[in-house]
């Protein structure tokens, strides 16, 4: 990576953290750089982000990765997409959009929102409002 691209990556990460009102600690900056440093949206698990940080020689524990991802979500920088009760992905794209979950590869990607048509939702219970609708479309190879 060139010095100019490192500066751009660092700048993107710093600005992203500032948007969420988060202090740019060394570990937050390192993880934010992996998540948004190239300007692309990502779907990561805590484990995949931890592996990327290890590969990049960053000293961050898996517990710190989990805590940092939670802080990013709480700050409105990412959203958690729960695929199974025990499997969460973290998405840097914050607008409403559906996802494909590729069962064979255990990966999550964006699905084309313009092709999704939800014509009606159930009425929420008294005193409640719909905050968000998550759509995860599970895919597997045909038998």
TrEMBL record:
Organism this protein belongs to: Gemmobacter denitrificans
Query: What main location does UniProt list?
Result: cytoplasm
The family annotation for this protein states: Belongs to the Fur family.
The name on file for this protein is Ferric uptake regulation protein
| Gene3D superfamilies tied to this protein | Winged helix-like DNA-binding domain superfamily/Winged helix DNA-binding domain
> Which subcellular locations apply to this protein?
Cytoplasm
**InterPro entries (alphabetical):** FUR (IPR002481), WH-like_DNA-bd_sf (IPR036388), WH_DNA-bd_sf (IPR036390)
Assembly, in brief, is: Homodimer.
> By its UniProt entry, which Pfam families does this protein fall under?
FUR
Which key words tag this protein in UniProt? Cytoplasm, DNA-binding, Iron, Metal-binding, Repressor, Transcription, Transcription regulation, Zinc
């Amino acid at each position: 990576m060139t010095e100019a691209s490192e500066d751009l990556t660092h700048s993107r990460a710093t600005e992203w953290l500032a948007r969420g009102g988060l202090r740019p600690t060394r570990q937050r900056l390192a993880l934010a750089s992996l998540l948004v440093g190239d300007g692309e949206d990502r779907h990561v698990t805590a484990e995949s982000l931890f592996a990327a940080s290890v590969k990049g020689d960053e000293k961050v524990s898996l517990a710190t990765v989990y805590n940092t991802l939670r802080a990013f979500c709480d700050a409105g920088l990412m959203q958690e997409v729960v695929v199974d009760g025990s499997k969460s992905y973290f998405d840097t794209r914050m607008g409403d959009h559906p996802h494909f979950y590729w069962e064979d590869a255990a990966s999550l990607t964006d699905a084309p929102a313009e092709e999704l048509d939800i014509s009606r939702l159930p009425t929420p219970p008294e005193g409640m409002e719909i905050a968000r609708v998550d759509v995860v479309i599970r895919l597997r190879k045909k038998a």
